[in-house]
Write a structure and sequence with these properties.
This protein has 259 residues and is of the alpha/beta class. It has one domain: Rossmann fold (3-Layer(aba) Sandwich), CATH 3.40.50. The chain has eleven helices and eight strands. An eight-stranded mixed sheet has the order 1-2-4-3-5-6-7-8, sandwiched between helices. The longest helix is centred in the first third of the chain and has 15 residues. It starts with a strand and ends with a helix.
Length: 259
């Protein structure tokens, strides 16, 4: 693990692996998870790419912001990481909140991204009311109270039964997050509406959906794939964390797209 300090003083923890001279790819985690959510992608990425995983601010080993954060701030954190590492341009692969961050970069900083992968995400996720309620629950009741409901949406019942250890590990990570940091990033999703910007994303995009994803229903991904000029759509048979539950299919699509 290494630490980068952003221009506003917040620290972001990151992990590098793979090929130091290879093309760079940044993996951006979902709200309520950490860099470990990408473990199943490492075997196919590390032989070819310079892989940078990080904990979104407010999560894991990264700093906890004192106030709510914006999607712009999360996008600038990736720019800051690239600057720290001396990387001019990288592919960015994000799931859920990470997918929103990748969209922001594709629209606002195409000079720093070569391709974007938008997994289980949308240009607009949920409602102001639903996110305001989530923030209130996180900061008053705590994340333990939210964990079971979140896990039920992140994975299908079949995956819960087939791989309970993975679900338990991801649940434990969620429960252990700082509620303030989680709530700060909930605000970023609450306030983000990238629908007017989707048509202005000029970098190639891969959109991945889960056919039973309740958190970001497939219709959100279908809309993105239709709105972004150079987008490819890959529907997968799974729930919200497709890169975990359907890792083999996800990895095949990812490597083909990056190639």
């Amino acid at each position: 693990m290494a630490i980068a300090t952003m221009d506003d003083g917040c620290t972001v923890a990151y992990w590098e692996s793979g090929q130091p001279e290879g093309p760079a790819i940044v993996l951006s985690n979902a709200l309520g998870s950490t860099h470990q959510i990408w473990d199943r992608q490492l075997p196919v990425l590390e032989p070819r790419f310079r892989v940078i995983r990080y904990d979104t601010r407010g999560h894991g080993a990264s700093g906890v912001p004192p106030d709510e954060v914006t999607l712009e701030r999360l996008g600038l954190d990736i720019v800051g990481l690239l600057d720290t590492l001396g990387i001019a341009k990288a592919s960015v692969c994000g799931v859920s909140l990470g997918g929103l961050t990748a969209q922001w970069l594709g629209a606002h900083r195409p000079d720093r991204v070569s391709r974007i992968v938008l997994a289980n995400t949308g240009a607009r996720i949920g409602t102001v009311e639903s996110w305001t309620e989530r923030i209130g629950l996180a900061t008053t009741a705590g994340l333990a109270e939210l964990a079971d409901g979140i896990m039920a949406r992140w994975f299908t019942p079949a995956f819960h039964a087939a791989d309970p250890d993975t679900v338990a590990a991801i649940r434990a990570t969620f429960r252990g997050l700082n509620p303030q940091g989680y709530a700060a990033c909930c605000a970023a999703v609450r306030d983000a509406d990238l629908r007017p910007l989707a048509k202005h994303i000029k970098v190639p995009a891969l959109v991945v959906t889960g056919n039973v994803d309740e958190s970001t229903p497939p219709a959100l991904g279908f809309w993105l794939a239709g709105a972004i000029p150079d987008a490819t759509l890959i529907p997968l048979d799974g729930a919200h964390l497709a890169q975990v539950e359907q890792s083999a299919a996800f990895n095949r699509a990812l490597v083909k797209f990056l190639a």
